[in-house]
Amino acid sequence: QVHLVESGGGLVQPGGSLTLSCAASGSISSVNVMAWYRQAPGKQRELVAEIIGGDTTNYADSVKGRFTISGDNAKNTVSLQLNSLKPEDTAVYYCYCNVRLFRPGSHIYWGPGTQVTVSS
Questions:
Q1: Measured in whole angstroms, how far is the alpha carbon of residue 41 from the centre of its chain?
Q2: Which of 119, 112, 60, 52 is nearest to 85 (CA)?
Q3: Which of 89, 90, 97, 87 is nearest to 22 (CA)?
Q4: pLDDT tens per residue across span 62-114
Q5: What are the pLDDT digits (tens) for 16-40?
Q6: CA 112 to CA 39: how far, in whole Å?
Q7: What's the rounded Cα separation, in Å, for the pair 95 and 114?
């Protein structure tokens, strides 16, 4: 079993910054993808940013140039730097990982989520 622990959410004013961190623990053989998703009230969960194979990154158009994802596959961690935050970034942010364990197949796990609220 793999557990994801997130930290770093909170309340911030528009234009402010936050850093979200996520650590995966368990019997992980290797990491395929680590990512951040978010879900705002009344909306579907959406991909914010992902890091594939430890180096290839992708971002939602709405956060390009403002958010930066970074990861450390050796430590099974991923962080998301959120800059120039807007009220529309308000959501619960979820850490996601797609990993290989010491058994066949790839496995997906989600963190419990951390609230980010952007408001004056």
A1: 18
A2: 119
A3: 97
A4: 999 999 999 998 899 999 999 999 999 999 999 999 999 988 888 999 999 99
A5: 999 999 999 999 999 999 999 999 9
A6: 12
A7: 9
